[in-house]
Design brief:
Layout (H helix, E strand, L loop, with lengths): L1 E4 L5 E6 L5 H9 L3 H8 L7 H10 L3 E6 L2 E10 L7 E8 L8 H15 L4 E6 L4 H9 L3 E7 L2 E7 L4 H23 L3 E5 L8 H12 L4 E5 L5 E2 L2 E4 L11 E4 L3 H14 L3 E4 L8 H13 L3 E3 L5 E4 L4 E4 L7 E8 L2 H14 L3 E6 L8 H10 L5 E5 L6 H12 L4 E4 L14 H5 L2 H12 L2 E3 L2 H13 L8 E5 L2 H13 L9 H10 L10 E2 L6 H12 L6 E6 L18 E6 L6 E4 L2 E4 L2 H19 L13 H14 L8 H10 L8 E3 L2 H11 L3 E7 L11 E5 L2 H15 L3 E8 L5 E10 L3 E8 L3 H5 L2 E5 L4 H10 L3 H4 L6 H17 L3 E12 L2 E4 L2 E5 L14
Parallel strand pairs: 5-6, 9-10, 9-13, 10-12, 13-14, 14-15, 18-19, 18-20, 20-21, 21-22, 23-24, 23-25, 25-26, 26-28
Antiparallel strand pairs: 1-2, 2-3, 3-4, 4-5, 6-8, 7-8, 11-12, 16-17, 16-19, 27-28, 29-32, 30-31, 30-32, 33-34, 33-36, 34-35, 36-37, 36-38
Keywords: Acyltransferase, Transferase
Enzyme class: transferase
Protein name: GNAT family N-acetyltransferase
Length: 866
Amino acid sequence: MSEVLLTDGAMVTVRQLTAADHDQVVALHKAMPDEDRYLRFFSMSVPPIDIFVTKVLDENAGVGAFDGHVLLGMAAYVVIQGSAPVTADVALVVAHQVQHHGIGTLLLEHLGSLARSHGVQRFTADVLPGNWRMLRVFSDMGLAVSTRPNFDVIKVDIDLVPGEGYLDAVAVRERVAATASLQPLFCPDSVTVIGAGRKPESIGHAVLSNILAGGFTGMVTAVNPHAREVLGVACYPSVSAIPNAPDLAVTCVPAAAVADVAAECGQVGVRALLVISSGLSTNPVQAKRLLDTVRQYGMRMVGPNCLGVVNSEVRLDASFAAGGLSAGEVGVVTQSGGIAIALLEQLRRLGLGVSTLVSTGDKYDVSGNDLLHWWESDIRTKVAVLYLESFGNPRKFSRLARHLARSKPVLAIRAGSTEAGQRAAASHTAATATPAVLREALFRQAGVIAVDRLSELTGTIALLSRQPLPNGNRVAVISNAGGAGVLAADACVQNGLIMPALSERTRGELKKVLPALASVHNPVDTTAVVADEIFNQALQIVLDDDQVDAVIAIAAPTALGDPSSAITAETDKTLIAVRLDQGNVVDWLNGLPCFADPGAAAVALGHAAERATWLRRPAGRVPDLPAVDATAARKVVRDHLATHSHGEWLEPEQVVALLRAFGLPVLGEMFAPDMETAVAAQREFDGPVAMKAVAAGLLHKSRGGGVRLGLAGSAEVRAAFEEFSGRFGPALHGVVVQPMVQPGRELLIGVTSDPTFGPLVVFGLGGVDTDMLDDRTARLVPVTDVDADEMLGAIRSARGVFTSDVDKQLVRDVLLRVARLAELLPEVAELDINPLVVGRDGGIVVDARVRIEPVRYTDPYLRRLR
């Protein structure tokens, strides 16, 4: 069951239909007006729908949209027996009075997700040519739709594979609905503060005071049964006593009273709640009552346990932060009230201010994803800032943030970077997947700029707000203090920037204006004795160099002068300043972002260059891969789970079958349960072989002494088998015998699946180098062709690995196939290919292991509230 928003922001419940819904489903069909009945059944008479409804309900193949207990519409499918691909007839009915609200499209989204979970691959329907509304619903879905005339009807076929077009279409529909639902929360016409006390030290009093001081453009009331007015605002004994129900109610009452207050708000028509009150999350019963009440009445809610909401468009400061309303262009969402307070103050000092600030607190309803939707449509917001301690739906967050980042910078403060939450892992790949690695992969792919400190955040915001993005990452540094220039140069390199050599022309021009002792190489040292106008001339010369994309100008005031006043120029390049005696970490100098520390300037510039690079990056696509038999792969997984209901590591022959189903180059091998079978396998391969022990608990075979290489005859095979028997005893199940492969570069490609983030694909050095060098990179699925290319170049040793002796295209192909495997088979909990041995003309998977776990199907992109 899911609560879902319609296009106008109204809330409905979508759930699977059951036998208990039989009468309502039948009644929905019988209540259809003549025109709707004709378009649906090609007849004006009521057909015998009872049999159809019973079949749908018995097969759990229908979903309904409900307003409370009232069925508004239903969608269902019936599988066509023997169809390949698996195809189902689809039917849709929406009550006539609620059509044109997006219910039909919403039902088809949920029905398609349900059908995919049951293995259905395609919907089909017969539609009358005059039923243009139904044809439009199908075409607007975003799925691949084909139509063709079939006598007097139009045959519609819908491919249920959710491609990029479908996911984009779902996101647009969700954004429209979310924005409409958030309107009374962020832009209300009227607000009431429930629990507005007369004592200045009470939170309710502080919130009401801020609303009034901010100059809220709407009507303000308060609820306090013991007062007629507070701060000159009329008070009422209860929400129901207010003559006109307010759009937004701010609750500052004790935790035990919040659910009752929310119920009263819902009953009188309040459309949104801001729950400042704390203490609910320690009482699960009260917490559930509150959320159930919010859902029952279709309200949106921020909180509980939060600082409040600020929206400068309507001059709403519904918070208890000090300092007053500071309007600006920065949108902020944070789970921490303390972070919100600190960021508000720093932005206020810089004169930047906020467009929207939402402190989500315990995040029962409104989350970071909602704000990404809001800011997409809010032209006042130029920069988005996130402080998220947890992700409810990171895969949806990734798509939303990636779309928003194309038009506005999205910055996130890293939180929880330690490995305290790392789960125990048995494979090299899983050992990589700490929470920090997962989050970094998420941010990197979505184009989110991640920062570690508030000062780093505000410095980057200042740069992005007032300077153009650099065209590249080539930076020149000019200073009147040589040591500071060196520090800046080091910091630039550490932050992914390049310190290019200045052109001969630039060096010549600098020599003409600077003292003889000056350094005209990058970083430029003008010496401390230059006059302000000379420093400015030198700065302009450096900016004019075609080899330079951005400039950091550093000023150290001395008794001889202060060149900081000269740091100004007519340029379209990125220019930032550093003033070494500056008290604030970041400030303004002649309209330029000015830092107190060269390192901080380099960090901010590195982030700007990172954003510019990401914007130039092609969007990428998940490529179609030949020779992929997903059906055969699913059979391997299904057969394994049939005998191992809790899942475990696949047997070697199952691993081979699974990888070969995805077109991966797997080395031939034979499993030998005893010594004589192993000897026979060596003879059949007719050459030196590798022998690997298959023993209970032995995952890292080389480390555990379970590998012998280059066994050239029967005697060596027998000796190795006896050695394994002595070492592993009864735990030895047998051995795997493989032909020896030609030497090559040993690489690791693997997968680990996180229950929240989904599958993570890891690439790096393999073999004995895996743990020793820890040179790896990771991306979350889906992995595009651009992601794959970036991964190949992201490891530290990339330049040394991909020489002419290594088939880079083979590695790329294997990486993409493994990523596709992880995407299509969520039951793959861990996969290690180590090593993948690659030479000049190809490569081979020498060793691999796969762990399977049963999973419950989830659709991360399905429209639904938290």
